[in-house]
UniProtKB/TrEMBL annotation:
Lineage, opening ranks: Bacteria, Pseudomonadati, Pseudomonadota, Betaproteobacteria, Burkholderiales
Superkingdom, taxonomy of origin: Bacteria
Family statement: Belongs to the aldehyde dehydrogenase family.
PANTHER family: ALDEHYDE DEHYDROGENASE, ALDEHYDE DEHYDROGENASE-RELATED
Record-annotated active site: 245
Domain Aldehyde dehydrogenase positions: 13-469
UniProt entry keywords in alphabetical sequence: Oxidoreductase
Protein name, entry field: Aldehyde dehydrogenase family protein
Record's keyword annotation contains Repressor: no
Coiled-coil spans in chain: none
Species annotation: Noviherbaspirillum album
Length: 474
């Protein structure tokens, strides 16, 4: 991967204001993959100025013409899919085959979807003596994390551009290389200057300069609840619209009549995907007290099959964690779980054997976890599953809802009808019914401290739209 020493602003690759750079580290080799500019306030201001200047033209461009550009971006990304999968396998650590399907397939499809939606959306409607017009919010700053980096970028950038917003993207400094490829694709698609701008750097410096800027109308953020709170505070000074996709501590509720084998296996998979670095990971498995021993044995057996190793090697199911800091944090949580008295059914805090390089941890399953313990309350963001028992359905719902978060969850039962009844009692934005899966067209977002607003589908584009009422004489 070549070094990246320029930012993409106003339709051009430009030299950043300062000389500082950030190393992007390969999670499995611990080597530097490339360096990127550590942008500063001047870069943020230049990008916002370009986006502001482009806004009137882009928002007035007919949606069908905006759709044509999005279609070209979709095609351009598709053509570079393999390269993107390899880059993300390097910077994030997800095995390359899985990366191709999940980290790349979904965002590429999303650009295609928003192209279609822009062409089909009902941009106006009449109610009584008013015509209600949907208009772009304005300049949108999109700030994204590292765990599904291109997916989170596409969910924001494609929706914002389809809506008629102009965009400044600040990708994660931990996994930014995919965003530079996207900028090249957008440039090659001939998107007018200033419609899409890319600045790289750290959150507290370039990120906050963007959030603070008076010419920015909206911030769409995905990341930790801690940073989301800070962004909300900074954005409040100029009353910006803020959409937040934050952390989670989701529960998989297994009811007494569920197919236990399928439910436990499905939960372990939903917890360990991307080495547990998934905001909607099912990190708490709730099982009836009477079925604990059986569930614990199945979980340990399934988890033991999660081979850990080189993301480019072809056989490992799990790669390393994204960084040394993340690995250390996860191991600390595993030690904390042991200290708090949970049973280790599989895994543990030690490094996995025979992997001298790379930020690997052992997939770990804890049994008999107390619902109020640290590992059952805090987001670990690693392959760590906590099994918690409950006496009856009411208690299961109480435990599932008993964290600060409300992002996702799952319910397993003898029938979809019964599972749905319990799902409706969960205070979360999405619930998988008997192994149901993520849907690109359904709204995705959190209740409580998991965030505000929704991404994906038409709901995601609506976040970037204002309502305007044209009032006629009655
Ligand atoms: P993070 O909050 O550290 O960083 C996310 C992004 O915000 C990065 O680009 C970072 O540079 C920027 N940032 C940090 N502080 C900032 C500030 N003060 N002002 C402006 N920008 C700032 O999160 P992360 O470690 O990259 O990602 C992991 C977190 O993201 C987890 O908590 C996870 O649950 C969450 N997440 C949520 C969703 C969701 O859809 N709800 C999806 C993925 C990840």
């Amino acid at each position: 991967m070549q070094n990246r020493n320029q930012l993409y602003i106003n339709g051009q690759w430009v030299t950043p204001s300062g000389r500082n750079t950030i190393d992007v580290i390969n999670a499995s080799t611990e080597e530097v993959m490339a360096t990127i500019p550590d942008g500063d306030e001047n870069d943020a201001h230049a990008a916002v100025a370009a986006a502001r200047a482009a806004f009137d033209g882009w928002s007035a461009t007919p949606p069908a013409a905006r759709a044509d550009y999005l279609r070209k971006i979709h095609e351009g990304l598709k053509a570079r899919s393999q390269e993107l999968a390899e880059v993300i396998a390097g910077e994030v650590g997800m095995p390359v085959k899985l990366s191709a399907a999940i980290q790349v397939g979904s965002p590429v499809a999303n650009f295609g979807y928003y192209a279609k939606l822009a062409g089909e959306f009902e941009w106006e409607e009449v109610t009584g003596h008013s015509r209600v017009v949907r208009e772009a919010v304005g300049v949108a700053v999109c700030i994204t994390p590292w765990n599904y980096p291109l997916h989170q970028i596409a969910a924001k950038v494609a929706a914002a551009m389809a809506a008629g917003c102009t965009v400044v993207l600040k990708p994660s400094e931990v996994a930014p290389l995919n965003a530079f490829i996207l900028a090249e694709v957008i440039d090659a698609a001939g998107v007018p200057p200033g419609v899409f701008n890319l600045v790289s750097g750290t959150g507290p410096v370039v990120g906050e300069a963007l959030v603070r800027h008076a010419d920015v109308d909206m911030v769409s953020f995905t990341g930790s609840t801690r940073a989301g709170k800070r962004i909300s505070e900074v954005a409040a000074a100029t009353v910006k619209r803020v959409a937040l996709e934050l952390g989670g501590k989701s529960a998989s509720v297994i009811l007494d009549d569920a197919d236990l084998g399928a439910a436990v296996k499905g939960t372990v998979n939903a917890c360990f995907l991307n080495s547990g670095q998934t905001c909607s990971a099912h990190t708490r498995m709730l099982v009836p007290e009477s079925r604990y021993e059986e569930a614990a044995a199945i979980a340990a057996e399934v988890a033991a099959k999660f081979t850990v190793g080189d993301p480019f090697g072809g056989t490992a199911k799990l790669g390393p964690l994204v960084s040394a800091a993340q690995r250390d944090r996860v191991r600390d949580y595993i030690r904390k779980g042991i200290e708090e008295g949970a049973e280790v059914l599989c895994g543990g805090p030690d490094a996995p054997a025979d992997l001298p390089k790379g930020y690997y941890v052992q997939p770990t399953v804890f049994g008999r976890v107390k619902p109020d313990s640290t590992i059952a309350q805090e987001e670990i963001f690693g392959p760590v599953l906590s099994i918690i028992t409950y006496k009856d359905e009411d208690e299961a719902v109480r435990i599932a809802n008993g964290t600060l978060y409300g992002l996702a969850g799952g319910v397993w039962a003898g029938s979809d009808e019964r599972a749905q009844q319990v799902a409706r009692r969960l205070r979360t934005g999405q619930v998988d019914i008997n192994g149901g899966a993520f849907n690109l067209f359904a709204p995705f977002g959190g209740y409580k401290q998991s965030g505000r607003g929704r991404e994906m589908g038409k709901y995601g584009m609506e976040e970037f739209l204002e309502y305007k009422s044209l009032q006629f004489k009655p």
